[in-house]
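Fold these two proteins, one after the other.
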Amino acid sequence: MSKKIVLDKTRKQVREVVCNRCDNQTNHIVCSSLELSWGNDDIQGVDVYEIIRCSGCDSVSFRIGSSNSDDFEQDDDGNYSHPETEEIYPSRLMGRTALEEIYSLPDKVRLIYRETHIALCTKLKILAGVGIRALVEAVCLEETASGRTLEEKINDLVIKEILTKKNALILHKTRLLGNIATHEAKAPSDTELDVAFDIVENLLETVYIIPKKAERLK
């Protein structure tokens, strides 16, 4: 297979991608690039590796654009084109930036939160569902909730006045979603994951982040 490398061919070009910090689709400038052309008698392709910088907040990401002769599209006029697939690192999902004050979380809770957030952004749905349940478990463990089951532990958080009854009822729905992902290896829908993660983030803010902010006001 033949290969050819060209450096900085796409430098200073603009890419429209979701910014991990701006939480919106923004223009990113290519700071540096490497284009790898490859092929043989059966297939030819191009992989472009780019370091890109958001023109809004200056955050840096890594982009891979790939295309090959086997993947093609035809328009109404009969013209062929080769669509480019795109990967962005670190992975991100618009509308789902991580909590800003993540340092306010206990160590174990923070670790599980980060990994669950990554799974959600990379659309690893089963792992995200398992992670959401693990987050609830971690909070119960951190707050020494009593009970043999997660359901009983959540109810004990109400007794300890860490959760309201209304929030506990909502959290039970999240628990059930996590159970399905954990025990049945069934992927939740995007909507279910989005709502469940909102609920868990609200739990983390209520139990850890807001009290830390309140301490700074004293």
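Now the second one:
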Amino acid sequence: MASKLELLERRIVRCRRCPRLVAWREEAAAEPPRRYAGERYWARPVPGFGDPAARLVVVGLAPAAHGGNRTGRMFTGDRSGDWLYAALHRAGLASQPTSVARGDGLELDGAFITAVNRCAPPANRPSVAERENCLPYLAEELSLLKGARAILALGSYAWDGSLLALAALGHRAPRPRPRFGHEAEARIGPYLLVGSFHPSQQNTFTGKLTEGMLDRAIARAARG
């Protein structure tokens, strides 16, 4: 599976299906904020990252313009990633609590991190067409992660994207359609889908998402 995931990663990194997102990710790299001045940005689609034998797949919205788009790794180099990887470390799924750059020694054990969209979108809002362009990559990742039994969707966009990717694999959601919520659950095919508020600063600064809430959602999903 590792070699097939690597081949998929190469295809993802070369993707230029969405002109608006290509322009935005490259503009962000060309005009970085002062704190990142002089850094060489990844500025390409960001592939998934983690354990090919993972039981848990964590799905986000998209890379941040100055996070994953800069570092080339999902949830790496931004505040959302600080929260997520610290929580995964507490759960025993990450070798260290921080994720600052590719090659920093971080390894995941039993978890794989990906997103619905692979390029940073303006205002964190991909269009419907941009989501549809990227969804086949998520569906293919899920098909290659043979050991995966649970999906943790970070936010409603990731929840909806996960449902669509599972449907593309022939796993139809029950009716009525499962609604997103923190610690919402749905059994879909061989997977347990669990929802969590996204660890964005908008949620963590306001207390909408606490460390304990994120820990419980991860623990539930990890149990499958």
